[in-house]
Structure formats: structure tokens, C-alpha cells
């Protein structure tokens, strides 16, 4: 069983307690003020140009912003379970493209003292930083599909802002492709660190924590259910309260969990019955940790209502379906998994049989059996969704 961090529950469920800080123990933002108008540094300004530049791809039609659209909280604007890339934009990726918002508060991958894998970038945590993460899509066969770093830099040297790049990083920078690629990814990292769109803290819930607005009765019920360790228990992985220093929550503890998400037939690689996406243990440096097989990064729930697909394989396309899976996975597994020839349910069908023991079946709401009542009723799921909708940035009273 994947070791998880212990749950720090909310003491109170009413507005006063929530404003004071309900729960702790999770990663939270050190700067929760409203975004300011500070101009981007020269490096970050270059990063913005690079982020939006389709000419840096082999197809000439794909940029970072293609899969991380600002209008969709830097996540895809479509409902594809995995995005397409490659030289002809006909190569499907392995996993859904997550939002990159609030990742500047993340850390490099580590295993905590209690054994919990934490941090890292991408669904499997393999990148060590925003800079490391930013470089990998340029060279991926099913993303921007460049042949080499030098290939990327050759394209960059012909971009409309090439002179600006040389002005910031040196007149001879394009003669040193490896160094230039390092500066390109550094600029992308700086852009994500500086631009307030990536860390806006401008949701209705943020305004609620600031004491500026009230949540509706349904939103408050949803927050209560979200925090309740006997109901949604969402805060076990997605802390919702301010930290002791008053900083705002990121709605992720940056840990990993194995939820036994059903196989998604819409991902082409799954046509091969012998193929399984094993998540964390598919990394070369984690191959020996078979107890991590099937574990994926816990994403932030900020802006989750703007997403079009959910989980690492995009298996569900609505929040209602995703939350229903959470609470009915074990009470009504036949709703989500195929049947075996004998009529039994082939539960956890996207994992080899030997790794099914890794799936989280201990924490609420996963500690149920067929026929038990789900942790949340249908109406309570709707209440939680109402609360999750308050996490979308750009709120205006």
C-alpha cells in the first residue's frame, strides 16, 4: 500500500473557523496577495514569447501555450484525454496535460521521512524543477518533436525575438546550443514564476478567506463535506485552509496516490493489452519501488472546474463523473470497470494484477465494500462541486 501523509482535519466548519485556518500540514502559498502590476524581468518577458511561439516545434503549429492555454488556467482548451503532437501533430501523448498554475510553489521530488513520495514535476514527478519540466516537451516525439537541442536553438535563432534573446544572454549565445537551450528553459521558468496569471489567488474562495465575500449555503455545505474526514475527506490530499503563517492553500500536498483509475480506451497506447502506465515506478530511478506502481501526482484543485478531463489518463470528462468515481469506486465498481468472463468485476483494470494491492483502499472514501452506502450522496456531490467552482481564478463579485 502506498504510504500517505496523515490527515490534518478541520476543527471548525463555520466561516469564523475557516477564516482563522482550518487544517494544516499541507503545502501552502507564501504570497497570497492580489497580483501586482510589476513588469516582467527581461528573462521572463523572453519566456512569455517562447511559451507562445509555435515556430519552435517540428510541426510549426505547437507551442507550450497550445496545451497550457491561459484562457483555461494553463490547461488544454479541449476534452482530449491526451494531446496530440509530433511532426505532423498525429502522435497522441500518454497522459492528460495538467495545468501548470501554482507549480512555482512545488519542489523537487523527494521521499518524506514517513515514506511518502512528494514533489517533482509531471504526473510522475520526474522533472526536478519548472526549468527541467519546460525543456522536455521540446524533445518529445509526441509533443514538439525536435530532433535535438541544437534543432530547437536553430529555430530560436530565426525567431522574431532572436536579437532580444542575444541581448539578454550574450551575442554569441546561438553558437553554444546547449547553453542556449539552458537559457531558453530558464526564461520559461522565470516567466512562470513572475507572471501573476500562473499564481493569481483570485478565486471566490480566496476572497472568502480574505473576508471580502461570503460563500453561499451550498458552497459552505460543500466545503464542510470536502473537509470532513468521514465524508469527502478531500483535504487529506488537498488542504483547504490557511497555514499557520496565514498563507493561502494550494489545494495539493504535492504527494502521490494510487486511485485505481479505470483504463481509458481513448488513449491509443491502451489498444495493447500488455501496456500499462505504471506512473511513479515507471521512472528508471524508481523501478525498484514496486509499491509505487500505479501512483500519480496529486494535482492542485485550483481551477479544477475549468478542466475538461480528469486524472492522469483523462478517463472522466466531468467533475460529477470524477467525484462519483471517488465515492462509488468500491460500493458500485461495476459502474466503472469491465466484467470478467465469469461476470465478476475486473476492478483496477489499468494495473497489472500484482500491483492492485497498491491501490488506496484504506482512506475515506475508498474504505467501502460493494453494497455499502457511498461516503457522499448524489446531492452532497453537487454541494462539493459548488464549492470546487469557487476555486476558479478571476472571480468578480
Any chance you could write out the topology, listing elements then pairs?
Blueprint: H1 15-20, H2 42-51, H3 64-67, E1 84-85, E2 91-92, E3 110-111, E4 117-118, H4 130-139, H5 149-157, H6 162-169, H7 177-194, H8 204-209, H9 217-227, E5 256-257, E6 296-297, H10 319-328, H11 378-388
Helix pairs in contact: 2-7, 4-7, 5-7, 9-11, 10-11
Mean pLDDT: 92
Structural class by sheet pairing and helices: mainly alpha
- The CATH class of the largest domain, by name, is Mainly Alpha
Regarding quaternary structure, what we see is single chain
Query: Approximately what portion of the residues adopt beta-strand conformation?
Result: under 5%
Give the radius of gyration: 22 Å
Which descriptor suits the 3D outline? globular
Overall strand count: 6
Count of separate DSSP helical elements = 11
The low-pLDDT segments are 1-26
CATH topology of the largest domain: Cytochrome Bc1 Complex, Chain D, domain 2
Indicate the percent of residues in helices: 25-40%
Largest sheet: 2 strands, antiparallel
* Secondary-structure element string: HHHEEEEHHHHHHEEHH
Q: What strand line-up does the widest sheet have?
A: 1-2
Task: Tally the structural domains.
Answer: 2
End-to-end gap:
45 Å
CATH H level, superfamily name of the largest domain: Cytochrome c-like domain
CATH architecture of the largest domain: Orthogonal Bundle
Amino acid at each position: 500500500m502506498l504510504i500517505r501523509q496523515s490527515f490534518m482535519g478541520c476543527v471548525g466548519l463555520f466561516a469564523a473557523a475557516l477564516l482563522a485556518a482550518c487544517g494544516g500540514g499541507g503545502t501552502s502559498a507564501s504570497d497570497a496577495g492580489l497580483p501586482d502590476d510589476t513588469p516582467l524581468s527581461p528573462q521572463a518577458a523572453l519566456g512569455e514569447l517562447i511559451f507562445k511561439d509555435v515556430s519552435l516545434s517540428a510541426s510549426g503549429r505547437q507551442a507550450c501555450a497550445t496545451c497550457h492555454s491561459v484562457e483555461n488556467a494553463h490547461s488544454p482548451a479541449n476534452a482530449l484525454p491526451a494531446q496530440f503532437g509530433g511532426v505532423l501533430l498525429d502522435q497522441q501523448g500518454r497522459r492528460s496535460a495538467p495545468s501548470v498554475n501554482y507549480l512555482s510553489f512545488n519542489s523537487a521530488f523527494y521521499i518524506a521521512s514517513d515514506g511518502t513520495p512528494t514533489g517533482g514535476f509531471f504526473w510522475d514527478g520526474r522533472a526536478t524543477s519548472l526549468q527541467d519540466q519546460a525543456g522536455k516537451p521540446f524533445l518529445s516525439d509526441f509533443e514538439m518533436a525536435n530532433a535535438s537541442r541544437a534543432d530547437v536553438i536553430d529555430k530560436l535563432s530565426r525567431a522574431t525575438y532572436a536579437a532580444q534573446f542575444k541581448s539578454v544572454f550574450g551575442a554569441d549565445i546561438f553558437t553554444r546550443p546547449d547553453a542556449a537551450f539552458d537559457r531558453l528553459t530558464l526564461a520559461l521558468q522565470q516567466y512562470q514564476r513572475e507572471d501573476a496569471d500562473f499564481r493569481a489567488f483570485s478565486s471566490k474562495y480566496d476572497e472568502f478567506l480574505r473576508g471580502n465575500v461570503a460563500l453561499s449555503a451550498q458552497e459552505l455545505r460543500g466545503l464542510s463535506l470536502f473537509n470532513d474526514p468521514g465524508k469527502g475527506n478531500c483535504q487529506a490530499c488537498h488542504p483547504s485552509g490557511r497555514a499557520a503563517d496565514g498563507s493561502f492553500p494550494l489545494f495539493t500536498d504535492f504527494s502521490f496516490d494510487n486511485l485505481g483509475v479505470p483504463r481509458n480506451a481513448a488513449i491509443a497506447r491502451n489498444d495493447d493489452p500488455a501496456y500499462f502506465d505504471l506512473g511513479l515506478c515507471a521512472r528508471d530511478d524508481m523501478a525498484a519501488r514496486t509499491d509505487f506502481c500505479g501512483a500519480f501526482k496529486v494535482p492542485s484543485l485550483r481551477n479544477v472546474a475549468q478542466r475538461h478531463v480528469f486524472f492522469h489518463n483523462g478517463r472522466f470528462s466531468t467533475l460529477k463523473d470524477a467525484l462519483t468515481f471517488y465515492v462509488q469506486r468500491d460500493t458500485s465498481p461495476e459502474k466503472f470497470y469491465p466484467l470478467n468472463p465469469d461476470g465478476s468485476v475486473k476492478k483496477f483494470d489499468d494495473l497489472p494484477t500484482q500491483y492492485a494491492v497498491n491501490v488506496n483502499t484504506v482512506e475515506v472514501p475508498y474504505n467501502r465494500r460493494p453494497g455499502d452506502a457511498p461516503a457522499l450522496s448524489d446531492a452532497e456531490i453537487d454541494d462539493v462541486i459548488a464549492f470546487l467552482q469557487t476555486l476558479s481564478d478571476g472571480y468578480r463579485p
